[in-house]
Write the structure tokens for this entry.
Amino acid sequence: MWRFQVLVLALVATLCQADYVPGTPGAEWSAEEMITIKSRINWVIDNPEATLSTMIELGSGPDKGTVDKILEKLNKRNDIDGILPTAAKFVRLTFHDCLKETETGVGCNGCFNFKGVGDVWYMHIHCPNPKDEKTARFCNKHEFGLRPLVQNETDNNNLLWTGLALEHIYRGYDFDTKAADVDSLFSRGKSRADLWAFAGLVAVHKTIQNNNRKCQEAPCLLQVDETSPNCMLEPKTPAFKTGRADCVPSCGDGYPAFCTAEHENHPDPHGNGQKTAQFFASDFGLNVQEAIALLGAHTLGRTHVTTSMWASIPWTPQGKEDFNNFYYINGLNETGYRYADPSVLLNGQPQCNDQISAFTGDEEGNPVPTRFKVVAEKQTANRGPWDWQVVSTGCWANKCADVKNANNGFYPKTSCCHWLEFCQANPKDCPWENFENKRRNNWIRWNINMLNVDTGFVYDFQTDSQGRPTGCPNFENWPTEGWRANYRDNDCPINNNPSGLGIDKDGNERTFSGEVKFFAENSQAWIDIFTTTYDKMMENGVDGSALTLAPTDWFYDN
């Protein structure tokens, strides 16, 4: 079991008579407070590794020996961002905080259950299904416990350090100056729950700005070519309110104040579209369009094999730190272009109108036919979990030679041949494995990874008790052993189940997949609906009568 050192910040003075009391509504925030806290959160987002190092120096979190062991293993797997306090983690923390507690129905209360938290598993190839007692002892020691036989639930793993970073800010610490304020949000009676909700908004706002910087004059970094539509987003002002009440800590000595023994209602990590929609309807009061809009937050970050067992691949390589609608474009499998930062090809920071696009098509620069493969990650005894990865053929060297000759020694901006020459010389730095086609049935992964809850709104399938997709021709009689058990091509029908939202502009009944397609084609409509849905999410399980609309100056302050 992990034990946590108590967070102590040496403040010069505190206003004890105004200290926040858990279980009571938090005090209102001033515009100045919001601007200051926004700045501190943004510094953490810009400097997550420095923030983590500072917290370790301050003695926050688990004991140093355990932390050092975890960091060593994560660095070996190139998975260190799995625990860093990034923009994606702040958004994830806000959502997980607003999951309702099973017994009380309370949500958004500045606490989460610590089941699985700090259990960074999935480091060793022998541990998915230990074959003998000796291996089991090894796995129990080096993975901090044995893996579940079936990965059938989610938890709050990898949110520990994000929660601790915000706890430092809550208690008045500034990671930039490494100094603490005379007083703090806590000493002024503000609730942690309000801070967590605000942190998610700040992360969304910042990553929208990241997106817009790459959407200036077409073609820019998030546009394929001169014909690409404008990808700038104009976010609506969120209706952020203060007055949420924190939970009363219930984990005992040695745990952070945001630890609760109460269990939350988590969504089924293997649910299809219908099951996921039912969860959001029952637990958040969202309709299908709102549920799909909220899932667009998956445009940020990636899953991590070391903390979730899903592949360490992003949903959107076009937006790991940029808030945009590529999540929907990728989910529909309508991308057509592989995405990779072309800096190494340009010998410098890419700019708008560069000679090489961040989007890569075929040898002539045209879109590439793609498909989803459902991949068994083989991290548990049943070979699960399963995820959906976009694949296509690679790039043919002989075709590149023909294209180069036909274009006076040059390639089109979106030609895969730019990358092929680099990948042949630098295979370890190539964005894609097996990029060069050397046989007719060669296929490469696009670094796009979706889960059942994502593709379930686009494709109509079921899942069994193990979490394996079923109900489509290629998924039937799926073997459980041998290489044929590793993946299956997707041949599921489009999910045309009614979304329950009436008729579309063409007079047809609106469907699950149609809602996804609408957001893929209308980025501004998505961000508008996302904003109002996020506002609703932040009040889930909260006493609305205690909430007060906060100032909006922070939203316009740059």
Summary: The longest helix spans residues 192-213. Residues 4-321+499-556 form one domain. The CA atoms of residues 197 and 248 lie 18 Å apart.
